[in-house]
Amino acid sequence: MGNCTMDEYSMHIGGEFTDSTGDDRIPVRNPYNGEEWASVPSGTEEDIDRAVRAANAAFESDAWAEFTQSRRRELLYDIADVVEANLEELARLETKQNGRLFTETQGQMGHVAEYFRYFGRLCEAVGSGRTNPVDGTKADLFNFTKKEPYGVVGAITPWNVPILLSAWKLAPALAAGNAFVHKPSEQTPVSALRLAELIYEETEMPDGIYNVVPGDGEVAGATLTSHSGVDKVAFTGSTAVGREVAASAGRNLSAVSVELGGKNPNVIFPSANIENAINGVMRGIFASTGQVCMAGSRVLVHEAIHDEFLDRLLDNVSAIEVGDPMDPETDIGPMAFRDQCETVKEYIGLGEEEGATIAYGGDSPEGAPSECFIEPTVLTNVDNDMQVAQEEIFGPVASVIPFEDEAEAVALANDIDYGLAAGVWTEDMRQAHRLADDIRAGTVWINQYRIIAPNVPFGGFKDSGIGRESGLEGLKEYYQTKSVYMDLSGEVTDPFAGEY
Ligand code: NAD
To answer: Where are the alpha helices (DSSP H) in 253-337?
Structure first.
């Protein structure tokens, strides 16, 4: 099967590697050293059309009809086993594509296996509906509901956490019985193709149920989201593109979920365990070089502890090891690609123009091995109205903003278009509950930051998205409910007696 070599990949359609109808290729670079180590085809409109047709045919096939809940559960368990058996290789591919620490990508692959097992366990829940008494009608008229898959899911993912964010879609989509066409990010397409290859080699995945077509967002991505053969669009990426994707799915009246950006507040009160809060701030914005949607990029600190907190934070930041993502001693690696690093530098410059002070970092570290490195950066004298405080930078840049009291903290936390996540650091549990109520975000962590779990829903309020991933809510995004009325009376019905 296939014509996949070490570094020249093709697309994966209908259960096998397939050449693109076009000649354009996308280079894949290692951001640590700038080396180009792989290339993938830039999927055309015809390629996407082919994949969507293959998925539709597979969805309607007898082979897939045999994948009842228990067989889908076994399929998902088998995928989990495949990921675990190839954990090191997949993690290495992720690190080579986006520069995330190898320790982190190994951990991510562990999560991927957990997600497949979690949604495997939920397969049985998908088939079950309920019976509904129908009020005011004959006793022998009853109603029951069934949960049915949409059909073909078109999934589009970003570069920051490639396989895990794909698994957040693929696992529930398969659990619910859908076929799947995936367009990975143009920055990180290789791990998706290798995962498809492994799954087809080592599980009973029916041909065409899982397809991967790499390509540019504006061509392959836009074709997928506007294709009439796609029944549900699942997107993770920026808010700007998410709006386009939701509009495009809306024009087709396809179901849609979009997981988008964040500019998340991490709020520290005087009663907090300060050491723990500092670690939470570091974990929130510097780990993963700040390239996470849930990054705690706005650090809101009560004025009573602001100066001491800042001093201690800067001490810790100055100890961060920036370097080779394969080295276990490294704390933060490169940005995933040069343009993203440039964007971060532009934002830092803009912050200075707006009146912020660079309290730490702000530039490439000396002797950096490639153009993708940026120092962890702390901006002070930031006003919440500044662009650096309102826009997602998607890099290791913390904006520290003081507040006077709880009311101001809540007002600042909510004074933003985004609503993805928030952290609150306090030992006052009444205050913790108030903040959990008052902050308009899909996730609030109290005395923690950046925790996720397969059974816990994740998603955004406001401009951070529509829908939820993970948990029962995440499964619900992939099925629709059918309502069946049955009249068992055998009586002849009056044609004009209906009420609706
Ligand atoms: P992006 O929006 O630029 O691209 C995401 C994907 O969309 C890519 O695969 C891209 O090719 C595709 N795309 C681009 N234009 C398209 C179009 N017109 N039609 C269809 N598809 C198109 O985002 P990115 O830079 O890859 O990722 C970073 C963003 O993702 C950040 O904003 C981050 O916050 C967000 N993100 C959100 C979550 C979450 O769960 N909420 C998780 C991770 C990342």
So the answer is: 274-285, 306-318
